Amino acid sequence: MRATPLPPLSAVAAALLLTACGSQVPGRSSDESGPTTCDVTPPPKSTATATGGGHGPETDGVRITDVRGPAGDCAVFQVTNHHDRPFRYTVTFRFRPGNGTAPVNASRVLASVAPKATVTGTVDMPAQPRGTADGTQVEVVEVRSVPTEEAPAPGGPCPPSGVRVYTDEGDAAMGLRVVSLHLENCGTDTYHIEGYPRLSVLDDAHRKVEWLRILHDGSSVAGSTGADGPPRPLGLKPGERAHAGLVWRNTVLSGTPVNAPYVRVWAKPGAAPVMVTPELDLGTTGKLAVGPWKRTEWQ
Predict the structure, then answer these.
(1) Residues facing 139 on adjacent strands
(2) Where in the chain are the domains?
(3) Quick check: 18 pLDDT over 90?
(4) Cα separation, 163 vs 147, whole angstroms
């Protein structure tokens, strides 16, 4: 659960070269680019290192290839899409400054990497107090990837389907997890839904979790979450929204706890799927509850 990421490039691959650094909000385009510490020419020498990077093994398709700047302020990385269709990548990096300052994370989003392609990106260490010294280490701590055509779109242009489907950051208390699926009609026609969203839960290798029981009605896991009540037909006019709750517990009793980052969502039968990343830490419970679509009163 999130509490609060060569062969010479062809002209097409070069268009995917990312030169922007710093944190970006998942769901926004990574085309918001600009100069970075890594763009300094020639790059200053640094004693910083890439933990697990360089010519070492990839982490889910991501490899750090260089760390630059006088204090290891910026890392250069490569993402290789081993899938057979375009994927969107959200990569979280951890910078460990050499002066003992607390580690800091930064994320980068690559909007679309072509199948079997390798592209290069850069990421800056978030601002640190003066005195950050040589010896910074950089590591890849998390990689999340979804098919480009299934990526959630909480903002930006309206998808071809005419609806946006995405999740919020959720809430966690005493082992209970609640995340809301949101659906917005950003098209021009009324969008009709009824019942429950269809779900397929996937592990970190995008394999379906077969043993999981998906239960209708959130009260089957916990009451007072808002993910209960009977399903009702809804007609969403352009600009209107609906939501449905995902409810689970991370209780561990016996067996091996299961973490399933991804959920493929169909808003209704025949709808185009959207893959969201609610980070399901299911413990050993073996069940996930989903509530019915409900109209969102605040628009």
Answers:
(1) 94
(2) 11-145, 163-295
(3) no
(4) 17
